[in-house]
Design a protein that fits this description.
Elements (H helix, E strand, L loop, with lengths): L6 H14 L13 E5 L5 E5 H6 L4
Antiparallel strand pairs: 1-2
The chain binds zinc ion.
């Protein structure tokens, strides 16, 4: 019977998927979402919205 040789196709898809998964926050594992926030003292602070939504930061 005919053999299926389409494993390379799935390899490419898996590779693309793993590449997309590199774009995740290393703290919460979600899609990184950073917002700039001004502290009361006037300093700009980066705030991880993704982590806040994941419940990692208060
Ligand atoms: Zn995060």
């Amino acid at each position: 019977m005919a053999k299926k040789k389409d494993t390379s196709k799935t390899n490419v898809a898996a590779r693309l998927e793993s590449k997309a998964q590199q774009q995740v926050c290393r703290f919460c594992g979600r899609k990184p979402e950073m917002v700039r926030q001004l502290t009361p003292s006037g300093k700009v602070q980066m705030f991880r919205k993704c982590c806040a939504e994941a419940g990692l930061v208060a």
